[in-house]
Amino acid sequence: MKVKVIPVLEDNYMYLVIEEHTREAVAVDVAVPKRLLEIVGREGVSLTTVLTTHHHWDHARGNAELARLRPGLAVLGADERICALTRRLVHGEELRFGAIHVRCLLTPGHTSGHMSYFLWEEDCPDPPAVFSGDALSVGGCGLRLESTAQQMYQSLVETLGTLPPETKVFCGHEHTLGNLEFAQKVEPGNDHVRAKLSWAKRRACVQVHGEGGPGRGPGGTLQGAGKLRAGG
Hints:
This is Hydroxyacylglutathione hydrolase-like protein isoform X3. By secondary structure, the chain is an alpha/beta fold. A 6-stranded mixed sheet has the order 1-2-3-4-5-6, covered by helices on one side. Strands 7-8-9-10-11-12 form a 6-stranded mixed sheet. Mean pLDDT is 87; it is low at 208-217. The protein has helices spanning 33-43, 57-60, 63-69, 149-160, 176-186, 191-208, and strands at residues 2-8, 12-19, 24-28, 46-51, 74-77, 87-88, 94-97, 100-106, 115-121, 129-133, 168-171, 220-221. The longest helix has 18 residues, at 191-208. The termini are far apart. The chain is built from 6 helices and 12 strands. It folds into 2 domains: 2-173, 4-Layer Sandwich (Metallo-beta-lactamase, Chain A); 176-209.
């Protein structure tokens, strides 16, 4: 399983997930379809499906144009408000793309119909991955807009928090530095936050100088994504 990280807009991420044996590809959160199709063409893969985490424009606005350009494309998600949706998914549903398995995880909080996608590949030593949209980012999470605090807590702790700790996290936005700087202000004595912030600053410096990978946030492990704090 190969994941192409595609930065778009101000701080969004789109993703192209490639099954390397069949050359089938699945896109996650299509905001800029023409940019996505450039990568599809460069990789020489067949794009069959779009997985959308939630209905907000910066994650789903490209679905309609992409569906027009690629007739027969499946556009999947959990919320009927998602643009160009062809089938609505439910919590716990599993999909298959060649050797890649997808488990659909309903993670309300940011929106009521937010779905995260947990992917793993058969007979592969690589760690699994979760595409968490705006439910979970590095050092933080999305704003709670449509769900209760209890629902959001369950999404983060009971659903995403129980995935294998080695799971790679591919989030919807690059908010790593801001999240960790805020966390340090809240807990100035937290050694974990201090170390993670130092890591993020080094990664940011590497990115600015053009020496690194896709960015500061996506691709880190669930274990390193940050620790949830809850209080009254």
